[in-house]
Design a protein that fits this description.
The structure holds two protein chains of two kinds. By secondary structure, chain A is an alpha+beta fold. Chain A has a domain of 224 residues: Metallo-beta-lactamase, Chain A, CATH 3.60.15. Chain A is built from eleven helices and 16 strands. By secondary structure, chain B is an alpha+beta fold. The longest helix of chain B is centred in the N-terminal third of the chain and has 17 residues. Chain B is globular. Chain B starts with a helix and ends in a 5-residue tail after the last helix. The N terminus and C terminus of chain B are likely disordered.
Chain lengths: 360, 332
């Protein structure tokens, strides 16, 4: 199957599947730091969990009767398309009653069948955005997408904080907030609820399941997390796991190769394959196709092997330039590397080198 | 002019066994088609297709479509029958990136919890030594075949969809067996497989990327009063192959065969620090020369990739190999 065929089949798949549909939400192309931002596509992951492909990062979305929870917000320039894509998906799901909280009873006391004239309440808006790091594709859409949402609150909170219900809540590790403040980002884009512990649990079930946020220190940045949807058994890995490239590691923002590996190993500890190292816990990567524990295992192996090679070269006293010349990622470059764009193989090797030097 | 296909048939009939020793013997000028000239990629594919057509033509089945259901033990007379040596990469058009990965591969990685229950993928298992079972899924209304279900021992089931469904988009998950669809070409079934997980072409560290795709041909025929299923695989891998890799496997119908369950339990096989991944540093893994040293072949063979596919390569080894063989460790 050639790439052209795959693209055609992808479109066919999107058009041919009934509801819920992996719909082509938009078909425009934007640019992100030299990288092409492709069409937006929804892909069903499991139960209420969906993956939105294309807005600069994969956005994991829990879409159900309680509203919408997003893991990451994509690039700022993709925000309006993301909002439109969410509404489009909700409209399709709602048309078939998948977002109903309850079916209103109509007819007499003895009526048991549903009337065909039944309609559905409007879908609930975006209520939560979780940022898994302070990288631009995680936080870029915060302001616009949060503004399209709402926080359900009341009582004392609503009485004393007048704007407490305006916009969706944005959850993140506090280091994400600190990074964004240091960059003078708009107040409306900042996380509204932060945590400083190793784990954070969303207080109540959302769309029929618990949601757990696990902090991974010093991974892509110093504020990374991954999100575990416990009922669906889906992990949104953020920038720890990237099926399209080597991991983006911002050493200046506290990132390190060993932190990324710690995060991947933590995901592997949680994940349980369904059978023969396949399926079971599904893992939504920051970029690229949907994965499972085997894909995370391969990625962990690759990064460990590259890390070991860079460390061995450092131990031989080599400079960064000498290490780059040795091409320690050579065996993986044709799959995950890039000589151009916003994250090249050399930038990745430099990040590995620097983070190992700093941890020595 | 002989093609690879009649050569395989000849080997079945004569009992010749192109296993590791056989491959080594052929490389040094033993079995083979001495008059063959070097075929480029397209020519190899054309010849393969032509020989497949010829095979079908003499198979005795004239009607379009074919039934592949049944219990199919593998014919243990091809390269699938033995465990490969470390460093035995001949006959696979590996890219230099693949060779680097194979070099740093440590067999001990199989003992990690993540890999203890890994099955062979759809690329390897169709060339592996495992028995095959095929059955049909039939649509209850139309009575048309929805899919041929295929199951190999120690692997995962893989349906070959026959109902015209499209392949998933690129961002869908990949599986060990991949996503396969079939179309009829006369009574031969052509199968396109995508969405494969990363795996290996040979189980000695030769990597296969998750961007590999397969074009496959299934043919059933009668030969010597027995039913054979011939499964031809053409692998395209933009990451780790420089040319298509063409392989075939023979199965012989045996209605008494059973494919038993193959459960797997993950245990701590080796106590290791958390996150440890066995691997070799480049240039430090002498085990990769196991194959060349054992058979007295030049160590350069390890790096020659697609060159090892072609008959002319024997002449290169003839010139370089004899000297190296005398100097190889363990040889006088």
């Amino acid at each position: 199957m050639r790439k052209t065929d795959l693209r055609v089949l992808a479109v066919l798949a999107c058009l041919s599947v009934g509801a819920p549909s992996p719909a082509v939400a938009q078909s425009r192309t934007a640019q992100r730091g030299g990288e092409s931002v492709a069409e937006l596509h929804w892909w069903p992951v499991r139960k209420n969990i969906w993956m939105l492909v294309g807005p600069g990062t994969n956005i994991a979305a829990s879409v159900g009767p309680d509203g919408v929870m997003l893991v990451n917000a994509g690039n700022a320039e993709a925000s309006e398309r993301v909002i439109a894509a969410i509404k489009d998906l909700q409209a399709q799901l709602n048309a078939f009653g998948f977002l109903d909280v309850m079916t209103a009873q109509r007819g007499g006391a003895e009526t048991r069948s549903r009337f065909p004239v039944n309609t559905h309440a409007p879908p609930k808006p975006v209520r939560y955005i979780i940022n898994t790091s302070s990288l631009p594709h995680s936080i870029g859409g915060n302001q616009a997408i949060a503004a399209s949402g709402v926080t359900y609150t009341g009582g004392n909170v609503a009485g004393t904080i007048a704007d407490s219900s305006e916009g969706a809540a944005v959850l993140a590790h506090e280091n994400v907030l600190n990074r964004m403040v240091s960059l003078d980002m708009p107040f409306a884009a900042l996380p509204t609820e932060t945590f400083f512990t190793s784990e954070y649990k969303v207080s109540t079930f959302f769309n029929e399941e618990g949601v757990q946020i696990v902090h991974v220190p010093n991974a892509a940045t110093d504020g990374d997390s991954f999100v575990f949807f416990r009922g669906s058994d889906v992990i949104a890995a953020g920038d720890l796991f990237n099926m399209d490239s080597f991991p983006i590691i911002d050493v200046d923002a506290g990132g390190s190769i060993n932190g990324v590996l710690t995060g991947l190993n933590a995901i592997l500890k949680l994940a349980i394959p369904e059978f023969r190292t396949e399926g079971g816990t599904l893992v939504i990567p920051g970029h690229g196709r949907l994965g499972d524990s085997a894909d995370v295992g391969y990625y962990r192996d690759m990064l460990t092997i590259i890390r070991d090679q860079v460390r061995a070269l450092i131990d031989q006293g080599m400079t960064l330039e000498q290490v780059i010349d040795k091409r320690p990622a050579f065996g993986y470059e044709a799959r995950f590397g890039s000589a151009t764009g916003s994250w090249t193989t050399e930038m990745f090797i430099e990040a590995v080198y620097r983070s190992l030097q700093e941890s020595a | 002019m002989q093609t690879f296909w009649p050569t395989f048939v000849t080997q079945h009939k004569s009992g010749q066994n192109p296993t590791s020793a056989g491959r080594a013997a052929r490389l040094l000028g033993g079995v083979g088609t001495a008059t063959m000239t070097r075929m480029r990629t397209l020519r190899r594919l054309r010849l393969a297709a032509a020989s497949l057509v010829a095979t079908v033509g003499v198979s005795g089945f004239g009607a379009a479509q074919m039934d592949f259901t049944g219990e199919w033990p593998v014919v243990l007379s091809q390269d699938n029958t033995d465990n490969p040596h470390l460093g035995e990469y001949v006959g696979i058009p590996l890219s230099q990136e693949a060779i680097r990965r194979a070099e740093v591969w440590d067999a001990s990685i199989q003992s990690l919890p993540e890999w203890q229950c890994r099955p062979h993928s759809g690329v390897y298992i169709k060339r592996g030594p495992s028995n095959l079972r095929v059955w049909k899924e039939v649509d209850p209304a139309s009575r048309q075949i929805i899919a041929f279900q295929t199951e190999w021992l120690r692997s995962t089931n893989t349906p070959i969809y026959m109902d015209g469904r499209p392949h998933p988009p690129p961002y869908a998950a990949h599986t060990w067996g991949g996503f396969s669809t079939g179309t009829w070409e006369g009574d031969r079934l052509r199968v396109e497989t995508t969405h494969l997980k990363e795996d290996y072409y040979r189980r000695n560290g030769v990597p296969q990327s998750d961007r590999a795709t397969l074009t496959e041909y299934l043919m059933r025929r009668r030969f010597d009063n027995q039913d054979y299923l011939t499964w031809v695989i053409v692998a395209y891998d933009p990451v780790y192959l420089t040319e298509p890799l063409i392989r075939s496997t023979e199965y012989r119908l045996n209605l008494a065969q059973q494919v038993p369950p193959y459960p797997c339990t993950i245990v701590t096989e080796v106590v290791r620090p958390e996150g440890y991944v066995p691997n070799w540093l480049p240039g430090k893994n002498d085990q990769i020369y196991s194959f060349s040293d054992y058979y007295g072949l030049p160590r350069s063979l390890y790096f020659d990739g697609a060159e090892t596919l072609y008959p002319e390569y024997r002449q290169k080894l003839e010139r370089a190999g004899r000297t190296t063989a005398r100097n190889a460790p363990g040889r006088e």
